[in-house]
Amino acid sequence: MPARRTLEDGSQSEVVFAYRFDAAGQATRRQAGGPVGDPDAAFLWLHLNLADRRARDVIAGLDMPADARAMLLEPEERSRFEIEEGWLFGQLADLGRDIDAASDEIVYVRFAVGPNGVFTARRHPAQALDRLRRDLDRGRLARDPRDFLEAVVDRIAAGVEKRRQAQDETLTAIEARLLADRHADVAAALGDARRVNVEITRHLGAVTSALRRFEQIVAVVDAQNRELRDWATGLAHRFDEVMHDARADAERARLLQDEANASGNWLANRQLFVLTVLNSLLLPATLVTGFFGMNTGGPLWGADDLNGTLKALVLCCMAAAGAALFMRRRGMFR
Q1: Domain span including residue 39
Q2: Which pTM does this prediction carry?
Q3: Do 215 and 164 fall into the same domain?
Q4: CATH assignment of the domain containing 238
Q5: Is the pLDDT of residue 291 over 80?
Protein backbone atom coordinates (compact mmCIF):
# COMPACT_ATOMS: atom_id res chain seq x y z
CA MET A 1 0.00 0.00 0.00
CA PRO A 2 1.36 3.50 -0.72
CA ALA A 3 2.56 5.59 2.22
CA ARG A 4 2.34 9.03 0.68
CA ARG A 5 -0.88 9.81 2.56
CA THR A 6 -1.13 9.87 6.36
CA LEU A 7 -4.08 9.85 8.70
CA GLU A 8 -3.09 13.31 9.94
CA ASP A 9 -2.99 15.09 6.59
CA GLY A 10 -5.09 18.20 7.22
CA SER A 11 -7.77 17.82 9.90
CA GLN A 12 -9.35 14.50 10.79
CA SER A 13 -12.86 15.34 9.68
CA GLU A 14 -12.39 13.44 6.41
CA VAL A 15 -11.33 10.24 8.26
CA VAL A 16 -14.22 8.80 10.28
CA PHE A 17 -12.13 5.96 11.69
CA ALA A 18 -9.37 3.53 10.73
CA TYR A 19 -8.47 0.00 11.84
CA ARG A 20 -5.55 -2.34 11.28
CA PHE A 21 -5.99 -6.13 11.29
CA ASP A 22 -3.28 -8.60 12.23
CA ALA A 23 -2.79 -12.04 10.76
CA ALA A 24 -5.31 -13.53 13.22
CA GLY A 25 -7.98 -11.06 12.13
CA GLN A 26 -7.89 -9.02 15.35
CA ALA A 27 -8.77 -5.36 14.78
CA THR A 28 -6.98 -2.46 16.43
CA ARG A 29 -8.26 1.07 16.10
CA ARG A 30 -5.64 3.45 14.74
CA GLN A 31 -5.11 6.99 15.87
CA ALA A 32 -4.07 9.90 13.70
CA GLY A 33 -0.46 10.19 12.74
CA GLY A 34 0.27 6.94 10.97
CA PRO A 35 0.61 6.35 7.24
CA VAL A 36 -2.24 4.87 5.29
CA GLY A 37 -0.01 1.90 4.54
CA ASP A 38 1.18 -0.45 7.32
CA PRO A 39 3.61 -3.23 6.37
CA ASP A 40 3.02 -5.08 9.65
CA ALA A 41 -0.75 -5.32 9.16
CA ALA A 42 -2.55 -8.09 7.29
CA PHE A 43 -4.87 -5.40 5.95
CA LEU A 44 -6.29 -1.99 6.87
CA TRP A 45 -9.74 -0.44 6.98
CA LEU A 46 -10.05 3.26 6.29
CA HIS A 47 -13.50 4.87 6.48
CA LEU A 48 -13.86 8.31 4.91
CA ASN A 49 -16.42 11.08 5.16
CA LEU A 50 -17.28 12.30 1.67
CA ALA A 51 -18.99 15.35 3.12
CA ASP A 52 -15.46 16.68 3.65
CA ARG A 53 -13.75 17.70 0.40
CA ARG A 54 -10.37 16.55 1.71
CA ALA A 55 -11.57 12.96 1.56
CA ARG A 56 -11.19 13.24 -2.22
CA ASP A 57 -7.49 14.00 -1.76
CA VAL A 58 -7.08 10.91 0.40
CA ILE A 59 -8.87 8.74 -2.19
CA ALA A 60 -6.81 10.25 -5.02
CA GLY A 61 -3.65 9.11 -3.23
CA LEU A 62 -4.72 5.49 -2.88
CA ASP A 63 -3.30 2.82 -5.18
CA MET A 64 -6.36 1.17 -6.73
CA PRO A 65 -8.01 0.79 -10.15
CA ALA A 66 -9.46 3.99 -11.59
CA ASP A 67 -12.97 2.51 -11.65
CA ALA A 68 -12.75 1.64 -7.97
CA ARG A 69 -11.59 5.17 -7.15
CA ALA A 70 -14.41 6.62 -9.24
CA MET A 71 -16.91 4.41 -7.41
CA LEU A 72 -15.86 5.82 -4.05
CA LEU A 73 -16.55 9.30 -5.40
CA GLU A 74 -19.62 8.31 -7.44
CA PRO A 75 -22.35 10.95 -7.02
CA GLU A 76 -25.05 8.64 -8.38
CA GLU A 77 -26.79 6.66 -5.67
CA ARG A 78 -27.74 3.16 -6.75
CA SER A 79 -26.62 -0.26 -5.58
CA ARG A 80 -23.71 -1.68 -7.59
CA PHE A 81 -21.11 -4.41 -7.11
CA GLU A 82 -18.14 -4.80 -9.46
CA ILE A 83 -14.84 -6.68 -9.73
CA GLU A 84 -11.71 -5.53 -11.58
CA GLU A 85 -8.01 -6.40 -11.27
CA GLY A 86 -8.63 -8.37 -8.09
CA TRP A 87 -10.50 -5.46 -6.46
CA LEU A 88 -14.11 -5.63 -5.31
CA PHE A 89 -15.87 -2.28 -5.32
CA GLY A 90 -19.31 -0.76 -5.49
CA GLN A 91 -22.00 0.79 -3.33
CA LEU A 92 -24.89 -0.77 -1.45
CA ALA A 93 -28.02 0.79 0.01
CA ASP A 94 -28.15 0.78 3.80
CA LEU A 95 -30.26 2.39 6.51
CA GLY A 96 -29.01 5.66 7.90
CA ARG A 97 -28.17 6.66 11.42
CA ASP A 98 -28.79 9.87 13.34
CA ILE A 99 -26.58 11.12 16.13
CA ASP A 100 -28.21 9.03 18.83
CA ALA A 101 -30.48 6.57 17.04
CA ALA A 102 -31.08 4.60 13.87
CA SER A 103 -33.22 6.10 11.12
CA ASP A 104 -35.15 4.72 8.17
CA GLU A 105 -33.43 6.98 5.65
CA ILE A 106 -31.71 5.16 2.78
CA VAL A 107 -27.98 5.95 2.56
CA TYR A 108 -25.27 4.38 0.42
CA VAL A 109 -22.09 2.68 1.60
CA ARG A 110 -19.30 2.93 -0.96
CA PHE A 111 -16.45 0.44 -0.77
CA ALA A 112 -13.28 -0.65 -2.52
CA VAL A 113 -11.69 -3.87 -1.29
CA GLY A 114 -8.18 -4.84 -2.36
CA PRO A 115 -5.67 -7.50 -1.30
CA ASN A 116 -4.34 -5.44 1.63
CA GLY A 117 -6.95 -2.85 2.35
CA VAL A 118 -10.63 -1.99 2.70
CA PHE A 119 -11.69 1.57 1.91
CA THR A 120 -15.22 2.71 2.60
CA ALA A 121 -16.83 6.11 2.19
CA ARG A 122 -20.17 7.70 2.88
CA ARG A 123 -21.90 11.07 2.81
CA HIS A 124 -24.27 10.21 5.66
CA PRO A 125 -23.75 7.83 8.62
CA ALA A 126 -24.76 4.24 7.88
CA GLN A 127 -26.01 1.67 10.36
CA ALA A 128 -24.06 -1.31 8.97
CA LEU A 129 -20.63 0.26 9.35
CA ASP A 130 -21.46 1.61 12.79
CA ARG A 131 -22.55 -1.86 13.94
CA LEU A 132 -19.45 -3.44 12.45
CA ARG A 133 -17.20 -0.86 14.16
CA ARG A 134 -18.75 -1.66 17.54
CA ASP A 135 -18.40 -5.41 16.88
CA LEU A 136 -14.72 -4.96 16.04
CA ASP A 137 -14.20 -3.04 19.27
CA ARG A 138 -15.77 -5.98 21.11
CA GLY A 139 -13.34 -8.45 19.50
CA ARG A 140 -15.00 -9.54 16.27
CA LEU A 141 -12.41 -11.04 13.91
CA ALA A 142 -12.03 -10.44 10.17
CA ARG A 143 -9.67 -12.92 8.55
CA ASP A 144 -9.18 -11.00 5.32
CA PRO A 145 -10.70 -8.12 3.31
CA ARG A 146 -13.27 -10.41 1.72
CA ASP A 147 -14.40 -11.64 5.12
CA PHE A 148 -14.69 -8.01 6.21
CA LEU A 149 -16.88 -7.15 3.20
CA GLU A 150 -19.04 -10.17 3.94
CA ALA A 151 -19.54 -8.81 7.47
CA VAL A 152 -20.67 -5.46 6.02
CA VAL A 153 -23.25 -7.19 3.80
CA ASP A 154 -24.43 -9.26 6.78
CA ARG A 155 -25.08 -6.14 8.81
CA ILE A 156 -26.93 -4.44 5.97
CA ALA A 157 -29.19 -7.49 5.76
CA ALA A 158 -29.59 -7.53 9.56
CA GLY A 159 -30.60 -3.86 9.57
CA VAL A 160 -33.29 -4.39 6.94
CA GLU A 161 -34.51 -7.52 8.73
CA LYS A 162 -34.82 -5.59 11.99
CA ARG A 163 -36.95 -2.97 10.25
CA ARG A 164 -39.05 -5.71 8.64
CA GLN A 165 -39.62 -7.38 12.02
CA ALA A 166 -40.85 -4.07 13.42
CA GLN A 167 -43.36 -3.90 10.57
CA ASP A 168 -44.39 -7.49 11.24
CA GLU A 169 -45.19 -6.50 14.82
CA THR A 170 -47.20 -3.54 13.53
CA LEU A 171 -49.25 -5.83 11.27
CA THR A 172 -49.82 -8.19 14.20
CA ALA A 173 -51.18 -5.31 16.28
CA ILE A 174 -53.48 -4.22 13.44
CA GLU A 175 -54.70 -7.79 13.00
CA ALA A 176 -55.43 -8.01 16.73
CA ARG A 177 -57.49 -4.81 16.55
CA LEU A 178 -59.52 -6.22 13.66
CA LEU A 179 -60.11 -9.49 15.49
CA ALA A 180 -61.24 -7.65 18.63
CA ASP A 181 -63.43 -5.21 16.71
CA ARG A 182 -64.14 -5.97 13.08
CA HIS A 183 -65.22 -2.38 12.56
CA ALA A 184 -62.05 -0.82 14.01
CA ASP A 185 -60.66 2.09 12.01
CA VAL A 186 -57.23 0.80 10.91
CA ALA A 187 -57.03 2.49 7.52
CA ALA A 188 -54.34 5.01 8.53
CA ALA A 189 -52.21 2.41 10.33
CA LEU A 190 -52.50 -0.04 7.43
CA GLY A 191 -51.60 2.67 4.94
CA ASP A 192 -48.42 3.51 6.85
CA ALA A 193 -47.53 -0.18 7.20
CA ARG A 194 -47.96 -0.84 3.48
CA ARG A 195 -45.90 2.25 2.62
CA VAL A 196 -43.03 1.09 4.82
CA ASN A 197 -43.27 -2.42 3.41
CA VAL A 198 -42.94 -1.02 -0.11
CA GLU A 199 -39.82 0.87 1.00
CA ILE A 200 -38.34 -2.30 2.51
CA THR A 201 -39.11 -4.37 -0.59
CA ARG A 202 -37.63 -1.70 -2.87
CA HIS A 203 -34.49 -1.54 -0.70
CA LEU A 204 -34.06 -5.30 -0.70
CA GLY A 205 -34.72 -5.51 -4.42
CA ALA A 206 -32.01 -2.98 -5.23
CA VAL A 207 -29.36 -4.72 -3.12
CA THR A 208 -30.35 -8.21 -4.26
CA SER A 209 -30.25 -7.19 -7.92
CA ALA A 210 -26.75 -5.75 -7.48
CA LEU A 211 -25.51 -8.92 -5.79
CA ARG A 212 -27.10 -11.15 -8.43
CA ARG A 213 -25.45 -9.13 -11.20
CA PHE A 214 -22.14 -9.46 -9.37
CA GLU A 215 -22.68 -13.22 -9.18
CA GLN A 216 -23.16 -13.30 -12.95
CA ILE A 217 -20.09 -11.11 -13.53
CA VAL A 218 -17.93 -13.46 -11.44
CA ALA A 219 -19.23 -16.45 -13.40
CA VAL A 220 -18.06 -14.79 -16.63
CA VAL A 221 -14.88 -13.01 -15.55
CA ASP A 222 -13.45 -15.65 -13.21
CA ALA A 223 -15.37 -18.81 -13.99
CA GLN A 224 -12.56 -21.08 -12.74
CA ASN A 225 -12.50 -19.53 -9.28
CA ARG A 226 -15.15 -21.66 -7.61
CA GLU A 227 -14.40 -20.21 -4.18
CA LEU A 228 -15.17 -16.69 -5.37
CA ARG A 229 -18.29 -17.87 -7.15
CA ASP A 230 -19.56 -19.60 -3.99
CA TRP A 231 -18.75 -16.49 -1.98
CA ALA A 232 -20.69 -14.28 -4.40
CA THR A 233 -23.66 -16.66 -4.31
CA GLY A 234 -23.58 -16.64 -0.51
CA LEU A 235 -23.80 -12.86 -0.44
CA ALA A 236 -26.93 -12.88 -2.57
CA HIS A 237 -28.52 -15.65 -0.52
CA ARG A 238 -28.27 -13.53 2.61
CA PHE A 239 -31.03 -11.30 1.27
CA ASP A 240 -33.25 -14.02 -0.19
CA GLU A 241 -34.88 -15.01 3.11
CA VAL A 242 -35.41 -11.38 4.12
CA MET A 243 -36.97 -10.68 0.71
CA HIS A 244 -39.24 -13.72 1.10
CA ASP A 245 -40.42 -12.51 4.51
CA ALA A 246 -40.95 -8.97 3.19
CA ARG A 247 -43.12 -10.29 0.36
CA ALA A 248 -45.08 -12.38 2.86
CA ASP A 249 -45.63 -9.22 4.93
CA ALA A 250 -46.83 -7.40 1.82
CA GLU A 251 -49.37 -10.15 1.12
CA ARG A 252 -50.44 -10.14 4.76
CA ALA A 253 -50.95 -6.37 4.69
CA ARG A 254 -52.99 -6.69 1.49
CA LEU A 255 -55.24 -9.32 3.08
CA LEU A 256 -55.72 -7.14 6.16
CA GLN A 257 -56.58 -4.24 3.85
CA ASP A 258 -59.16 -6.39 2.07
CA GLU A 259 -60.64 -7.45 5.40
CA ALA A 260 -60.78 -3.85 6.64
CA ASN A 261 -62.42 -2.76 3.37
CA ALA A 262 -64.94 -5.60 3.57
CA SER A 263 -65.77 -4.62 7.13
CA GLY A 264 -66.20 -0.99 6.09
CA ASN A 265 -68.44 -1.97 3.20
CA TRP A 266 -70.53 -4.18 5.47
CA LEU A 267 -70.96 -1.34 7.94
CA ALA A 268 -71.90 1.10 5.16
CA ASN A 269 -74.43 -1.39 3.74
CA ARG A 270 -75.88 -1.94 7.20
CA GLN A 271 -76.35 1.78 7.72
CA LEU A 272 -77.86 2.11 4.25
CA PHE A 273 -80.28 -0.73 5.08
CA VAL A 274 -81.41 1.02 8.26
CA LEU A 275 -81.88 4.26 6.33
CA THR A 276 -83.91 2.45 3.66
CA VAL A 277 -86.19 0.86 6.29
CA LEU A 278 -86.78 4.24 7.91
CA ASN A 279 -87.59 5.81 4.55
CA SER A 280 -90.01 2.97 3.77
CA LEU A 281 -91.77 3.41 7.11
CA LEU A 282 -92.11 7.16 6.71
CA LEU A 283 -92.96 7.18 2.98
CA PRO A 284 -96.76 6.61 3.35
CA ALA A 285 -97.07 9.41 5.87
CA THR A 286 -94.96 11.68 3.70
CA LEU A 287 -97.06 10.85 0.64
CA VAL A 288 -100.36 11.45 2.41
CA THR A 289 -99.36 14.73 4.00
CA GLY A 290 -97.66 15.91 0.83
CA PHE A 291 -100.45 15.05 -1.60
CA PHE A 292 -103.47 16.00 0.45
CA GLY A 293 -101.74 19.01 1.88
CA MET A 294 -101.33 20.62 -1.55
CA ASN A 295 -102.98 24.00 -2.07
CA THR A 296 -104.13 23.58 -5.66
CA GLY A 297 -106.15 26.77 -5.79
CA GLY A 298 -104.81 30.18 -6.65
CA PRO A 299 -103.23 31.51 -9.82
CA LEU A 300 -102.20 28.08 -11.21
CA TRP A 301 -105.67 26.77 -12.10
CA GLY A 302 -107.91 29.34 -10.52
CA ALA A 303 -109.43 29.50 -7.09
CA ASP A 304 -112.72 27.87 -8.16
CA ASP A 305 -111.23 24.95 -10.17
CA LEU A 306 -112.63 21.74 -8.60
CA ASN A 307 -110.18 19.55 -10.57
CA GLY A 308 -107.01 21.25 -9.29
CA THR A 309 -105.97 18.25 -7.17
CA LEU A 310 -106.49 15.86 -10.09
CA LYS A 311 -104.47 18.09 -12.41
CA ALA A 312 -101.67 18.24 -9.80
CA LEU A 313 -101.67 14.42 -9.61
CA VAL A 314 -101.36 14.13 -13.39
CA LEU A 315 -98.51 16.64 -13.39
CA CYS A 316 -96.68 14.66 -10.70
CA CYS A 317 -97.08 11.43 -12.66
CA MET A 318 -95.79 13.06 -15.83
CA ALA A 319 -92.75 14.42 -13.97
CA ALA A 320 -92.03 10.95 -12.51
CA ALA A 321 -92.38 9.31 -15.94
CA GLY A 322 -90.08 11.91 -17.50
CA ALA A 323 -87.43 11.33 -14.81
CA ALA A 324 -87.69 7.55 -15.28
CA LEU A 325 -87.31 7.88 -19.06
CA PHE A 326 -84.27 10.13 -18.65
CA MET A 327 -82.61 7.70 -16.22
CA ARG A 328 -83.32 4.76 -18.51
CA ARG A 329 -81.75 6.48 -21.53
CA ARG A 330 -78.66 7.23 -19.40
CA GLY A 331 -78.37 3.57 -18.55
CA MET A 332 -79.09 3.97 -14.87
CA PHE A 333 -81.41 0.95 -14.77
CA ARG A 334 -78.93 -1.57 -16.16
Answers
A1: 12-264
A2: 0.78
A3: yes
A4: 3.30.460.20
A5: no
